[in-house]
Amino acid sequence: MVKKSNLGKIKGFSIQFLPYSEIRDLGSSERIRKILKIVLENNILILQGKLKSEEETRLIEDTMAMVDHVKNFRGIELAVISGNGSDGVWNKMKKGVANVIVGGDLGAVTIVGPATIVKEIKRNPKKIELMLNK
Amino acid sequence: MVIKVVRNFFTRIFSNMFKSRRDIRLGFYGPPNAGKTSLANRICKDFTGEEIGTVSKIPHETRTIQFKEKVEIEFKGKKMVFKMVDTPGITTRIDYEDFLKYKLKKKEAKKRAKEATQGVIESIKWLDDMDVVVIVLDATENPYNQVNITIIGNLAARKIPVLIVANKIDKNRADVKKIEAAFPEYDVVGISARYGKNLEEFYESVFKLSKKI
């Protein structure tokens, strides 16, 4: 279990990069546990690739359960940046095959941060901004 | 062999009969304060005379799933019976201190936050049980929110028909086109649940989607 004593007393934070290879062989529960463990330690996580849609909802569910049980934990901010959606059929097919081979969408990036640090992740099709709490 | 064919035939007939009798479960999903309950209330009030729940400016007013059974909607001479399912708003963060801004006492705010987290979990658990889902978004807010994308992605994976409603078009800042651009693969209907604006188009889209199931 994660140490929670530092939550809510933000003296600093770090940004942690997690390559997809670190979660590729994990089951959904382990993946989510690993992500939340990093976030609970006041890190902003930049994950190579993205979770499956059912894993994303599971992440929200587990986050809510933790808000209820972990003192000073207020939840997360989450954003997934995927590749260009206007790809042609051929490019989509190529990407699809590549994704099957490596086991995930490596063209995407997932950002997860604790709500006590990340106030908001503003995004539109052209840019993404992390607004931090003072 | 003949007995088996006859048995299968009757099984199919009976199961189809019961399937068609079941009311269509119409879920209202979306972020907090987008107007899910306002829209569900508007529909329920128009067709049953009763509302489904209370609305408030304070986020997370709906913290448990609310139902209204046997809501018969009549549109252009056609009728469909729905079970309306109004769900708590889905979010990734809940801070009781946000409720203090609405002059709630600390104890009340903490209780509301606790109930709200459980409401989010409940909403997600109910995704599987929906026949058609209306995603209610606030047309004055940025639609590129990961929670919206996650919910819609989950519904797509479950092959549940989705209609996106851009609510609050009565407000000056409302931008329906932005929502259409964010979700180009879905039907987007701009409405005002509060003032009952453009509900004809909404009913038409709901009927169209419900026929697909």
Q: Which keywords apply here?
A:
heterodimer; A: 134 residues; alpha+beta; two-stranded antiparallel ribbon; 3 helices; 6 strands; 25% strand; B: 213 residues; alpha/beta; 43% helix; globular
Explain how this protein is built.
- The complex is a heterodimer of chains A (134) and B (213).
- In chain A, 33% of the residues lie in helices and 25% in strands.
- Chain A is α+β, with helices and mostly antiparallel strands and 134 residues long.
- In chain A, helix 1 crosses helix 2.
- By secondary structure, chain B is an alpha/beta fold.
- Chain B has a six-stranded mixed β-sheet, with helices on both faces.
- Chain B is globular, with a radius of gyration of 19 Å.
- The mean pLDDT of chain B is 92.
If interface size is counted as residues with C-beta under 8 Å from the partner's C-beta, which chains form the largest one? A-B, 24 and 27 residues
Q: Strands of the largest sheet of chain B, in order across it?
A: 2-3-1-4-5-6
Number of beta strands of chain B:
6
> Which word captures the global form of chain B?
globular
User: What is the number of helices of chain B?
Assistant: 7
The rough form of chain A would be described as: globular
The first-to-last residue Cα distance of chain B is 32 Å
Report a brief summary of the structure.
The complex is a heterodimer of chains A (134) and B (213). With 134 residues, chain A is of the alpha+beta class. Chain A has helices at residues 28-40, 53-69, 89-102, and strands at residues 14-18, 43-48, 76-81, 109-114, 118-123, 128-132.
